[in-house]
Design brief:
With 271 residues, the protein is an all-alpha fold. It has one domain. The protein is 76% helix and 0% strand. The two termini are 29 Å apart. The N terminus is likely disordered.
């Protein structure tokens, strides 16, 4: 009786975590879609903005349909965080049971913390705009720079951003992301679309991460928090370049592609 009663509960827990993971992946996609849409509108001077995900969600909060959307997104972020914490604690994939290295588990825990904070910020945006983007990034950088060895830590985070960006590009070019997808379930007619969308989205993320990482390095070298930028700052830098509107439009489309890729993951990823 003990085994018979434990197994169903264990299966239910796995299914519950899987559901949270898929909702979380979809919510991540929605947040990037909002940023991409606003960037695209800004490129065409249609009232958009070059903002980060918290800024985009704060803008949504001021629309008539914002509250229910943000609540769903916040639950999704919380679900994503729980999924990452489960992976960090157990060290195993929910569906496959694949064992993870200790460094992977540390990374999962870090992402769990980040998406927990993003879920909280999303709920707060229902009641107030909150700080986001460059101001928040510079505030956090200034705090860290005051720590012993803070400049080294900021520099290390900058290197980590650049490395993460390069890895995103590597995943997009080599199709390594397909190792985590149930490609056998993807209709043959859609495989090509998935490949193109994933590559474009991941390469766009590579560019943005590289820009953010570079300015974190300059922050560390100059010990100047004012040089720190976030996602919105990276978009601003692109927009200020020659043919900035064109670049911003391309990146906006790329962010929409990355959002679509996350949607594909929500449906087909092994969790």
């Amino acid at each position: 009786m003990g085994v018979a009663s434990v197994l169903p509960r264990s299966r239910d827990r796995r299914q519950g975590v899987e559901l949270l993971a898929r909702l979380g992946l979809a919510s991540v996609g929605v947040s990037f879609a909002l940023v991409g849409f606003l960037a695209l509108m800004a490129a065409f001077h249609q009232g958009g903005a070059k903002t980060d995900r918290q800024g985009a969600l704060a803008r949504v909060a001021h629309t008539g349909w914002g509250a229910p959307v943000l609540l769903v997104v916040a639950v999704g972020f919380a679900g994503y965080a729980i999924w990452r914490f489960v992976l960090a604690i157990t060290g195993r994939e929910v569906e496959s049971g694949e064992k993870k290295h200790v460094l992977n588990r540390v990374g999962y825990a870090a992402r769990g913390v980040f998406y927990t904070s993003l879920a909280i910020a999303t709920v707060r945006s229902l009641f107030s705009g909150g700080a986001s983007g460059a101001n928040a990034s510079q505030k956090h950088a200034a705090t860290v720079l005051r720590w012993p060895g803070g400049a080294w830590l900021v520099g290390a985070i900058g290197v980590a951003f650049i490395a993460a960006g390069l890895f995103n590009g590597y995943r997009g070019i080599t199709k390594k992301y397909q190792e985590k997808l149930k490609m056998w379930e993807v209709p043959k007619a859609r495989e090509r679309i998935v490949t193109v969308v994933a590559a474009f989205g991941l390469l766009t993320r590579m560019v943005l991460f590289a820009i953010i990482g570079w300015f974190l390095l300059t922050t560390a070298i100059g010990n100047d928090a004012n040089k720190t930028i976030g996602l919105d700052g990276a978009l601003q830098k692109l927009a200020s370049q020659p043919y900035g509107r064109v670049l911003l439009g391309i990146v906006g489309i790329g962010l929409l592609a990355y959002a679509a890729f996350r949607g594909v993951e929500a449906r087909y990823r092994t969790v």
